Amino acid sequence: MASTIPNFKEFRFLKLSPPQILVLGFATAILIGTLLLMLPYSSASGHSLRFIDALFTATSATCVTGLVVVDTGTYFSTFGQIVILVLIQVGGLGFMTMATLFALLLKRKISLRDRLILQEAMNQSSMEGIVRLIRKVLVYSLVIEASAAVLLSLRWAADMNVGRALYFGVFHAVSMFNNAGFDIFGDYRSLTGYAGDPVVNIVVMFLIISGGIGFIVMADLIDYRKSRRLMLHSKVVLSMTAALILIGTVVIFIFEFTNPNTFGQLNLGSKIWAAFFQSVTPRTAGANTVDIAGLRQATQFFMVILMFIGASPGSTGGGIKTTTFTLMIGAVVSMLRGREDIVLFRYRLAQERVFKALTITLLALLLVVAVSMVLSTTEGRPFLMILFETTSAFATVGLSMGLTPELSEAGKILICLTMFAGRLGLLTLAYALGPKQGKALYKYPEGKMIIG
């Protein structure tokens, strides 16, 4: 069946697998973004950005991370910031989603192969209803971003002129919904000037959470009025997301309550908002309302754990995902209770899911440890700072303790690769490098060994 999505015939000619097309597509977007950001028009000073710094910024934007080596608000011109914004939107929704949008606008059919690629991109188990899901993704994203942009613009119109407020509203609505964490307030401030502002906190946290729970869950919630039931996936995502946010808020509030560098400067109401926000943002968002470098080490390490867990499948976020973490906890609980099956919400989960969750977790842990060890050698900074930055890159979070702008050339390249791996997913990269094999036609005899 011939494809009708534009500009992908060359991929088919090369006979690339869906994972390989995804990797190539994201790499192409990053390369185009790099070239555009190197143009003199992209910088406020009119000077060309160095290739390594342009590559880092384009990778961070396309992989919706938010780590920056130059200040977005002061270094880049309006043109450069718009380039970054487009990369965020393409990277957040996925380049195949954007390609499908153009195909739908042109009223062209979506081929079987294109559906296979979309299935891989959206991390779906089947192709059934994949185009319908893409339509919902596009509509939900546009509605949420537009609504948030209006609210943020109205709030910031009190602090700046209307045109600037509108621009700030649109930029930050897109950035936060896609969990990118880029801001244009300048001087690496992020949202620290609004630690106690209810409007900014509520709107931005809503954007982060809605972008992080995944489009499948969003569609399920909207359809709940008709179906009066939620899928198991939605139940797990919503319950684990709520639990992590609640636990994170309490832990951060307790750890930072008397910290003079962060919460000590705020009144009680602002402390609650700040604790809530700092609990939400490690879910791969990257924005912050207090100085991350000023947090206590216990809080910083706790945020490393939250970042490692990350958002949910089929979302704009990274990390090992909430469902993976839930499955690992379920496996531990089942083992302690002497049960063979993992049961969640009265559903038994297949052993294959456990193996996949274990593989993802172990690969992610190995990547973070390996990159942290190498950066400890090349950068010579405190290990917690390096671990924080590495986890932030892998989980495409964007929170920083201040190391990223001071990275060496080797460090920048390594973080770029880590962000790329985190956005695409380790299994997708593994399948792209070496396609998965079919089922074995025979089994080896069962062996026994002592564990524990």
Automatic annotation (TrEMBL):
Q: Where in the cell is it found?
A: Cell membrane
TM segment ranges: 20-39, 82-106, 137-158, 199-224, 236-255, 301-333, 354-376, 413-433
Task: Give the principal location in a single coarse category.
Answer: membrane
| Keyword entries, A-Z | Cell membrane, Ion transport, Membrane, Potassium, Potassium transport, Transmembrane, Transmembrane helix, Transport
- Membrane topology for this entry? Multi-pass membrane protein
What InterPro entries does the record tag this protein with?
Cat_transpt, TrkH
PANTHER family recorded for this chain? KTR SYSTEM POTASSIUM UPTAKE PROTEIN B (PTHR32024:SF1), TRK SYSTEM POTASSIUM UPTAKE PROTEIN TRKG-RELATED (PTHR32024)
| Protein name, as recorded | Ktr system potassium uptake protein B
Question: Species name for this entry?
Answer: Paenibacillus auburnensis
